[in-house]
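WARN no homologs supplied; continuing
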Amino acid sequence: IDGGATHIKWCIRTPQGKLVEGQSPGANRQLLEWEPYCAHLDAAVNAALAAAAVPPASIERIGMGLAGVDRPEEIDPIKRWARTKLSGLKKIWVGNDALPALREGVGKLQGIVLIAGTGSICFGLAPDGRTVRVGGWGGLIGDEGSGFWIGREALQAAAKMSDGRKKETPLLAKLLEHVKLDKPEDLIKWAYQRKGDDQKAAVAELATVVVALANDDPAARDIVKRAVVQLASHIETVAQALDRLPGSKRGISYAVVCSGGIFSSGTGLLDALADKLYEKGHSRFTLVLPTGSAANGALLLADELGN
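OK structure emitted
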């Protein structure tokens, strides 16, 4: 399971070795109470079982990379839930959703992974297993450069354009078209009547409009440019922290796996991020997109590290 705030993507490996994939509504553990959060996990597991036509007791291994989950007090209850749900489990792995993306992207848990989906977080893993984490503070405190951050910046720009505090660009009309509204002031009801994960997902979805307009619209281009600066800062900070670990080699090169919805629409933002890092003198980073799904990465981690 690759459990993001917007989507829970899952894959299930049948006894014949076939991978069946799909997705369910997402959830972030930090935004939901325990019961509603478990309901999202339950729905995803049920959907996977139904798609593969296998009973719950036949599942031997499960891997779950989950947004907002990476500390023992968050991991342990989910492991207990999984063992209750799937009575035949022999191996289980649970961790932050960044780790399966890294495993899938470079074939091992070593290097740097940047997740920019609804939220943003960057993880670094040293060869000896020590970890560094930057970001992942949520939309109220952080998540700079994420889909939610970009969408919120776009809404703020739209409000200023409507007021006359900012020169109007096509971004305003495109946002209204995307959410099927006639007037800018309708954005107030559209945004504030949503709560929790639903609000975050709806705002994050606006990032697709912003990224698509970035080449031609100055307001959208400014938002994307600032997002790239923030994401580059995540990568730089993680690398510097890895350098400072006792016994580490300073200045070594890193493969940086870039995963999440912000990167999934094409390589435009990835290229802009690479250019920003190179402009700042960081030739030590090679940015890569995962070749497979992070859900499959979670399954591989269950095979390799599950207990």
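The radius of gyration is 20 Å.
OK
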